[in-house]
Amino acid sequence: MFNKDNRIHLSVIVLLLGFILTGPQVQAVTTVGSHHLVISQRGEKTQFVSVPFLKLPVAQGRLDGVDAAAATLTDKEGAFSNLDVSSAYILRITSGPGVGSWFQLNAGLVSADSIAIRDDVMAGSLDMLEGDEAFQVHELFELGELLPETHKGLVAGPIDLLSTQVHVFEAGEFVKVWLSDGSITERPGWTYAAGDELRHIGHASVLPGTSFLIVQPNDEQDMSIRVSGVVLDDPISIPIGPGYNYVSVAYNTGMHRESGADYALEAIGLVESGFGSDGAADQVLHVDPRDGSIAQAYKYDSTTESFQTDGEPVLSAVTDSIEPGRGFIIYNSGDSYLWKYAH
CA of 185: how far to CAs of 182, 196, 201, in Å? Predict the structure, then answer.
């Protein structure tokens, strides 16, 4: 289950407590965990990291209806009434055929008993919901919350090459955010380029199942941060779009029950969900932490039922990289699909 390579320093999950969450028509036991994310490692200029949890649910209940045409969800018990319009939330389906699906809520478009969703940010389809599913609402982590601008392991500088950088792949484009010291930009903090302008990033939510590459200006220190959250009972669905996808897995008790937490590529449901095999160009890409380059590309061979590179089985470094708290890249040569990483 856990990486035994001391080079990477992924700490084991600490199960802190189990407690009862109650809500209208819903009662669930929730387990909380804690994890150290490595953001800097001596001898390595990059770290591919992810958030292996969701935040504790802020609301829960059972749907009273779905309007797919209007992209709205109904709950007559008022579960959506106290959401903060300045925060980003997802609604996660916890029962029925759509279990594991999630939808980003538009907290600014809420009425007494319904809420709108962002139809461009979701893992699932409203059409597949029956309208009476149990759900939980989670506030999303933000980049500045995970990587505070004043954290001693992060380097602020006048330009990106002299600063800590965060690289993501979003909406088909590579996006780079860097930590400015304010000497050139209008203000210090996480900064990105928008055309010819440099802008402070403000609120930047981290979606479930995503990962990002941290690039340090030097490779001289070891540093980690602690992150805590809820350990889900079942895996959460992850949308895989055409092209490159920076993805991750999260801790969940269902994965441990079914597979003993086997995070090998063959064991996490990629091929069953839609990953192309044999002649397809689909690949799992492993990033070399020493410099952030692509070290290897792995394809699936249906004859041997294994991921291989140049006819050789996957190296252990790739298995390490897909454990919770790490990240990796999927290149999808076909249509979009939902990755459900336990079956």
Answer: 5, 12, 12
Integer Cα distance of 162 and 45 in angstroms: 12
145-158 tens-digit pLDDT = 999 998 888 999 99
Global model pTM greater than 0.90: no
Same domain, 158 and 247: no
Residue 123 C-alpha from the chain's centroid? 12
Structural domain that includes position 296: 229-339
Calpha distance 291→325 (Å, rounded)? 19
- For 302-317, write each residue's pLDDT tens digit: 998 889 887 677 766 7
CA distance 329 to 238: 13
DSSP H/E element including 271? helix 270-273
User: What counts of helices (H) and strands (E) characterise the chain?
Assistant: 4, 24
- Cα 343 to Cα 334: distance, rounded to the nearest angstrom: 22
Supply 14's token pair.
């600490």
